[in-house]
Amino acid sequence: MRIVETEPNPALLNALDDIFFAANESGFIEVWNRAAEDVTGYTDVDAGSMTLTDFFDQPDSDRVSAAISELFETGDTVVEAALVTADGDRIPYEFKATRLPEESPYAFAGIGRDISERKEAERERNAILNRMRDGFFAVDTDWRVTYANEKGEQLLANAMRRPLDETTFEGLHLWEEIPDAVDTAFYEEYHRAMETGEAVVFEAYFPPLDEWFDVRAFPDATGLSIYFREITEQRQYREQLEHREQVLKDLYSITADRDSGFTEKVHQLLRLGRAEFGTGYGSLSEIRGDEYRFEVVAADDDSIQAGDTVPLEATNCEVVATRRETLAWGNIDRDAPEQTDRAGYTDWGIACYLGAPVYDNDGVYGTLCFYGTDTRAEQFSEWEVTLVELMSNWISYELQRKQVTAELQRQNERLEQFAGIISHDLRSPLTVLAGGLELAKETGDPEEFARCFDAIERMETLIGDLLALSTAGEAIDEPEQVALGELAEQAWESVPTSNATLQITAHDTVPADASRLRQLFENLFRNAIEHGGGDGTVTVGALQNGFYIEDDGPGIPEDERAAVFESGYSTTTDGTGFGLAIVADIVDAHGWEIRATESDSGGARFEITGR
């Protein structure tokens, strides 16, 4: 082999920085220029015994051999391969070769160009693209893939249903490989970008992959560069936020509706909660001692009705009320196995539960809860817990507001009552006192002075009862355990009892305000003695959930028993009519109930329950 020196334009060929070579049909190199010798490090003698493929290692030598075969079929070829020098260095080259005419002494000739800088730039670009958060791939104007970064290759492999590690994506036709994408937003937007030369940005769902993508496609003269990002989680989160925002708007609309009453609003909140939590039942319930009463119910069936009562111990709500905290059990057997012995689980089949305490001004009123017979794979979320707490907080506020409103109304009524008493009942003894003093002044008659003292005593009694009535109904914040028998004896000693006898059979204790409970006994004892003629027996006895005071006097007519607790009611001319009204207020302040009935002997009996 010889360096080009005797061929036409040898100076031109040797002046080239690129490699020039010519070879015979067997691929042996016949001539090359000086740049080829300088780059490879082989002499012309060495090269004379080498074929073109001898300058490459596997698999590049196979690719060069295939390119030579293509050359004889098509007339020219282009191939990239790493040229191996005599020193073992590997230099990336791009070779372009052309088949020569038959009259030429050589079969084909070609030029090799060092593409090290380009390859380095490509490596840097690929490194950058692979570090990108987005996936990327490019196609030419014939829709064939020209490049893809790692995320791009993964996407293409999934969409094309090809193994990632065994696929070379360059050269694959986009739409032939992904026919499911034809006539989708991706197909339409990519074509629009290619046709208009303008970039497109869009979000679209691709059903075969069950994913949402944020896509940006930029066209140029060589084809289309496509950047994409999977946004399924972000989109789901955004949709979740939009849904929750709507739920909060619905909650506000329900609670702010001035045309709906409290019960109807609770009904709507229960329906809203059931839809959000996916439970079959929702209820607002009140806890009354050991009983659990359903106040408002929303359910798929009529197995539970408003007004129904069940034992508190059968419900999970007992735990909510005791702990005074929200409880969320997506699967009671899994999340709260210690509660599986309750009837709610064993008999009613309640498998999931979400409940929050509801408060009025006296403490825990009951619970707002949602429950169902199907378990949940996941626990109730923080959002669901927060939502039920928002609902229970509003219900608590409304209950407390209603109590305050009722108390204000009661106080206003009491003020009006007091004003009436002051203007009427006190005016009468004042008139007697004024007239008596005038006559006493004129006549000096002792009887007139006695009338004056009687009027003063009457006013003192009225004023004392009014003061007692004004404080009897005040809430009791810190009750103490009071022994009924001992307190009854103390009250009996402070009342003029004439020849009457006290009998005590109640010896247990009750949580109460001792001072006001003593006043209750005093008023009931006084009432019994005044209406019983001064003798007889007054009994203080125990009930299952309270106590009673009864006498053996004439009793109270059945049609008057409800009226005796009204202020001003009296059957005697010298009574103020406030004694039993004070008793009723003391009972209310303790959260108890009082009922006037008949004793076994026909006398008056007052039963106080709910302690």
Tell me what the structure shows.
With 611 residues, this protein is α+β, with helices and mostly antiparallel strands. The chain folds into four domains: 2-114, 2-Layer Sandwich (Beta-Lactamase); 119-230, Beta-Lactamase (2-Layer Sandwich); 245-380, Beta-Lactamase (2-Layer Sandwich); 476-609, Histidine kinase-like ATPase, C-terminal domain (Heat Shock Protein 90). 42% of the residues lie in helices and 25% in strands. The protein is built from 19 helices and 24 strands. Helix 16 (446-472) runs parallel beside helix 19 (579-590) and helix 18 (514-532) runs antiparallel to helix 19. The protein is rod-shaped, with a radius of gyration of 50 Å.
Short description:
This protein is of the alpha+beta class and 611 residues long.
Q: What is the percent of helical residues?
A: 40-55%
CATH architecture call of the largest domain: 2-Layer Sandwich
CATH class of the largest domain: Alpha Beta
Tell me the strand percentage band. 15-25%
Q: What's the story with the biggest beta sheet? A: 6 strands, mixed
| Major sheet: arrangement of strands | 1-3-2-6-5-4
Number of domains: 4
| CATH topology heading of the largest domain | Beta-Lactamase
Q: Based on helices, strands and strand pairing, what is the structural class?
A: alpha+beta
Contiguous runs where pLDDT drops below 50 for at least 5 residues? 1-6
Mean pLDDT over the full residue set: 86
Shape: rod-shaped
- Based on CA atoms alone, the radius of gyration comes out at 50 Å
Query: What's the count of strands?
Result: 24
Number of helices: 19
Amino- and carboxy-terminal Cα gap: 120 Å
CATH superfamily of the largest domain: GAF domain
